[in-house]
Specification:
alpha+beta; Adenovirus Type 2 Hexon, domain 4; five-stranded antiparallel sheet; globular
Amino acid sequence: MCAFYTSGLKTVLIDPIFDRTNFRSEFRLHPDTVYLPQFRLLNVGVTTSVADKEYNSLTGTYGLIRSIELLDGNQLIDKVEQSALWAGFKNYKKDNNYSMSMNSPLSGNNMGSVYVGSAALDSGTPADNEYPKITVVGKVARTKIEANTTFKSWLAVSELLEFLNASQYVPTNVYKNLRLVINWETDNTKYLAVNNVTSQTLPPILVVDEVVNTEVMSSMMKSYPGLNWTAIETDSVVVPAITGITGATVGGPTTKTQSQNFTLNGFDNKTVGRMLLVNTPTSPATYAGEGATDMAKIGRAGSFSQNAQKVQVVVNGSNKLPRNGNTRPNSRLALLNDTWGRCNTIPCANDIGMVDGEKHVENFSFGRSSSLDYFGIDIREKVGELQLQYERTGIAESDASTDAENRLAKYNQQLTINVFGEVAKSVVVNSDMSYNVEYM
């Protein structure tokens, strides 16, 4: 690895060969050379029709990317769909210090936080803004109408594409027509804190490091061994809305349990490692920004808590969890941490027990209460058939016109469950330096 950095490198800025605002950008890399895998994007951001709009506190500008693909001509090498949701989870599981010092300033999210005590609480009854609180750190990134003053970010492509994360180097004598394609997100609740503005993406710049020592470059090209890596692939299912609970005021039931069975075909005949379930809301009233003065919120980019949620994953006919497991928020969070590593969370981020808008909750949730409820599980098996058993309990809305009660719609609405899974893949290089991309 040392030889790469002592052999001479050149940093190259590449403009897109195609760039259409709010649609797609495409970069093409040079043939017959060697790149290091630390690809990064500059100038990623948006202008908005009204100035000073905050970026989504979970995703920042990573939420602008709907999907990202690395291709060699028409050969797909690596791809991530629903990239905004995946990037949001990656930001959620970063160390708090790193979030405060690096990730938040670079990408415009707001995931770093600190605890602030309250002297007023010790001396008497505090005012609304004097309660102890966990609060975000630093200035929230904001948009402008003009491109030269709006927030623009630095993004690591390897945060999204695991092929690059696993590579030591990328030789373009093997990948002769290497292309990076970005499809931009059109749902602004995944990258902004409000949804009452229009936005325009800026033209991005790709930055790569190229080996310039011809002798070392030639040796690296000839000795390229191929690669084994875990790609991130996706599937999704739709959980229908819960109906028929009318509330005690009219004599109807106040709760109703819903059980659904789904078969996920997207992982058939693939060796799957860890999986992640993201509860994506579909009712705009439950996640949309409410005004220009709102704090940065997570919008539709997180994973919404559901009342009495129970998940079972069945692989090749066998349950992966105990029959009555993971029904409590803390046990679900423990399973997530055991599976994916420690998450940078706060009280009630994966629980429905608090309602945003109450001063006690606002002081430590800053818009994240019940919006970061991910489910993780380790499969580590070749999948012949994968089933998802999902259960939740709806809650009655006795008066939908009352704001606090209307928020109960979060727990009754139609959900899209987006499933991310680690899938083992490999590039097998042949003697003539051609190659095959295969599932393992």
